[in-house]
């Protein structure tokens, strides 16, 4: 059974990585463009699956591929739900709260949210609590660093400025999703 679960995760990761690579080829059709966002609604999701370049793509896909394995309790449908819920939350937050953001591409905001959501839920499990707390502390430290010291090294590596607002919005979305999930499990399971 465990081998089957691992194989499902590998297939899921391969699908997501391939899907994102396909979108990357035609990235202009899929990035976040504030001016036409509500007319081209698919960009609410796809903006987070295209990247400013292949290095940016590779870094985000590596971080994505690690997530299902460092938190082994998480099921595929949890990841799928996060990948469906976080992108429009971040995109609509850009649109309504950060109207100066005209364009965006990248999965990092969603990744921040997914890691926070999964780690927050894992705080409930005694065996995983320490590791989950460590992950949350590292993400908090990263957010503090980015918002005080900047992300010059990362920006140079990917060849584009880092939009730290995406990371912050992803974390906010991840916390909200984790709270909803925990409350749902508590009251309805």
Automatic annotation (TrEMBL):
<protein>
    <submittedName>
        <fullName>Rhomboid family protein</fullName>
    </submittedName>
</protein>
<feature type="transmembrane region" description="Helical">
    <location>
        <begin position="131"/>
        <end position="148"/>
    </location>
</feature>
<feature type="transmembrane region" description="Helical">
    <location>
        <begin position="104"/>
        <end position="124"/>
    </location>
</feature>
<dbReference type="InterPro" id="IPR022764">
    <property type="entry name" value="Peptidase_S54_rhomboid_dom"/>
</dbReference>
<feature type="transmembrane region" description="Helical">
    <location>
        <begin position="78"/>
        <end position="98"/>
    </location>
</feature>
<feature type="transmembrane region" description="Helical">
    <location>
        <begin position="12"/>
        <end position="32"/>
    </location>
</feature>
<dbReference type="InterPro" id="IPR035952">
    <property type="entry name" value="Rhomboid-like_sf"/>
</dbReference>
<dbReference type="GO" id="GO:0016020">
    <property type="term" value="C:membrane"/>
</dbReference>
<dbReference type="InterPro" id="IPR023826">
    <property type="entry name" value="Rhom-like_SP_proteobac"/>
</dbReference>
<feature type="transmembrane region" description="Helical">
    <location>
        <begin position="52"/>
        <end position="71"/>
    </location>
</feature>
<keyword id="KW-0812">Transmembrane</keyword>
<keyword id="KW-1133">Transmembrane helix</keyword>
<keyword id="KW-0472">Membrane</keyword>
<dbReference type="Pfam" id="PF01694">
    <property type="entry name" value="Rhomboid"/>
</dbReference>
<feature type="domain" description="Peptidase S54 rhomboid">
    <location>
        <begin position="39"/>
        <end position="182"/>
    </location>
</feature>
<feature type="transmembrane region" description="Helical">
    <location>
        <begin position="168"/>
        <end position="188"/>
    </location>
</feature>
<dbReference type="GO" id="GO:0004252">
    <property type="term" value="F:serine-type endopeptidase activity"/>
</dbReference>
């Amino acid at each position: 059974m465990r081998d089957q679960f691992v194989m499902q995760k590998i297939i899921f990761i391969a699908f997501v990585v391939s899907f994102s690579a396909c979108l990357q080829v035609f990235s202009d059709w899929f990035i976040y463009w504030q001016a036409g966002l509500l007319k081209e609604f698919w960009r609410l999701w796809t903006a987070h699956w295209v990247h400013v370049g292949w290095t940016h793509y590779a870094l985000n896909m590596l971080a994505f591929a690690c997530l299902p394995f460092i938190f082994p309790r998480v099921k595929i449908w949890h990841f799928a739900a996060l990948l469906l819920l976080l992108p429009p939350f971040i995109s609509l937050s850009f649109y309504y709260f950060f109207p100066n953001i005209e364009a965006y591409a990248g999965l990092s905001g969603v990744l921040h949210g997914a890691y926070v959501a999964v780690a927050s839920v894992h705080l409930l499990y005694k065996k995983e609590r320490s590791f989950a707390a460590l992950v949350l502390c590292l993400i908090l430290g990263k957010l503090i660093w980015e918002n005080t010291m900047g992300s010059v090294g990362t920006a140079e590596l990917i060849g584009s400025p880092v939009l730290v607002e995406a990371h912050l919005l992803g974390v906010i979305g991840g916390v909200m999703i984790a709270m909803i999930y925990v409350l749902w499990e508590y009251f309805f399971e």
